[in-house]
Amino acid sequence: MPDPRYNDQLVTRFVNMMMWDGKKSVAFKIFYDAMDIVEQKKTDEEKSALELWKDALSNVMPHVEVRSRRVGGATFQIPMQIRPDRKISTAMKWLINYSRKRNEKSMAQRLAAEVIAAAKEEGAAVKKRVDTHKMAEANKAFSHFRF
Length: 147
Known about the structure:
Number of helices: 6
Strand order of the largest sheet: 1-2
CATH architecture: Orthogonal Bundle
């Protein structure tokens, strides 16, 4: 189902991932409050808060990941392409987790700050993506073990 304010299914998916103990209305309130904060703090005037959030999500999305594969007693980290739906869910997970670890007072403020940072290609979630890509690049030599 699309969400009530933006009529977007991706927002509902994000809110469902953010939700704790089945409290969807609380999760929606956090998300909408965060979008209001982003709307106030944004510097780029022609983009809406939702577009900024989508930019942040696309900046956090990994393109490759490493998967463990056991070959002859040794475990290798093998770089692999990620399916598009897994890219989105991984990006959402990272954005939510690193928002929760921030130091602002409310979750809405934390999420807003992480979204703004990710839209500028800064922040912990983007660093996680960069680290994942570096690990995949470092283990490129084992890509022939792909399954």
